[in-house]
Amino acid sequence: MKYRKLGNTGMNVSEVSFGTWAIGGAWGKTNDQESLKALDYAIDQGVNFFDTADVYGDGHSEELLAKATNGKEDEIFIATKFCRSGDIASKENYSYEAVRTYCEASLKRLNREALDLYQIHCPPTDILKDGAVFEVLDRLQAEGKIKNYGVSVETVEEGLLCLVNENVKTLQVIFNIFRQKPLEILLPEAYKKDVGILVRLPLASGLLTGKFTKDHIFEEDDHRKFNENGESFNVGETFAGLGFAKGVGLSEQLKWISEGRNSMATAALRWILDQKEISCIIPGFRNIEQIDENLKALNEKRFTDIELNKISRFYIENVESFIRGPY
C-alpha cells in the first residue's frame, strides 16, 4: 500500500481508500456478509481510511464499519458526514443542537469516542456563505467529539468558499476524467493551503469501467436508476451529470486508456492519482473482487504527457459542454 498525507490533519491515508455508499444502500441489493468480508480484505491489504455518511442505509454503513474496525480504532481512520437526514436548506439543521445530535448518533453507530473526520454533506451554497456551521464544528472539536472537519462539496465555487476557513482540513469533490473542472483553480488552491482532497465517484458511477452497454437496466433501488436526471439529489452525483446513454458513448471513446494497462477502471483511477493535489480516491465496492480491482490502480502504469494532453482535449471537446447541473 502507498500512503499520502491528508492535508494537515496529521493522518497519512491509503492512496486507494474506499467509500461505503454502495454497501449501505442506493446502489442495488447489498449483502452484509459480503460487505464485511470485503472490508476485512481491504484492511488486510493496508487500506486505512473509509468514508461513510449517516444517510448511507440510514446509518447502516457506519454500523458495518464499526464491526469491521472493532479493536482497530487507532489504526483505521473513518470519515463520516452529516446534514442530509434533515432539511438541508434550513439553518436550524446546522445549529449546535442539531449537529451535536447528528454527531453523537454517528459516534454511537461507529462505536467511537471521537470522529477522525466529520464532513458537512453537500450543503447548499448559502449555508457555506453564512459560515455559522463552521463555528458549530469548532465547538464540537473543542469538546473532543471530532478531531478534524471538512466539507463534501458539489461545485468549485463551494470548495473555494470553504477554503476561506482555515479550520477546514479537507474537501471531498467529484473528480474524474469526465469531471476535470477542479483541476483549473480548486485543486491548486487547496494544495497551496495544505487542505486534503478526497475524490468521490472516481469512476463516474461505473461509466469509467467501460463495462456498461446502453441497454443495461439498473435495479429499482439503485440511484443510477432513480436519479439519472437529478430527481432525488444533485444530478452530478450520478453518471457525472452526463446521463447514462451519453456517458456510455463517451466511455467507449475512452477505452484506449486501458491499452498497456490492467483495465479501463484502473487506468481511470491512475489518472486521478497522477494529480499531486489528491490525497486519496474513495471508490465504492460491494465485494472482495471490486476491492481487488480498484487496488490494482496503485501499481498501474502512469500516463505520459502525450496521453494526458489527449485526455484533456477529449474532456474539453467532447465532455464538458454536456455536463448537467452546477459543478
TrEMBL record:
<dbReference type="InterPro" id="IPR020471">
    <property type="entry name" value="AKR"/>
</dbReference>
<dbReference type="InterPro" id="IPR053135">
    <property type="entry name" value="AKR2_Oxidoreductase"/>
</dbReference>
<feature type="domain" description="NADP-dependent oxidoreductase">
    <location>
        <begin position="16"/>
        <end position="314"/>
    </location>
</feature>
<dbReference type="InterPro" id="IPR023210">
    <property type="entry name" value="NADP_OxRdtase_dom"/>
</dbReference>
<dbReference type="GO" id="GO:0016491">
    <property type="term" value="F:oxidoreductase activity"/>
</dbReference>
<protein>
    <submittedName>
        <fullName>Aldo/keto reductase</fullName>
        <ecNumber>1.1.1.-</ecNumber>
    </submittedName>
</protein>
<dbReference type="Pfam" id="PF00248">
    <property type="entry name" value="Aldo_ket_red"/>
</dbReference>
<dbReference type="InterPro" id="IPR036812">
    <property type="entry name" value="NAD(P)_OxRdtase_dom_sf"/>
</dbReference>
<keyword id="KW-0560">Oxidoreductase</keyword>
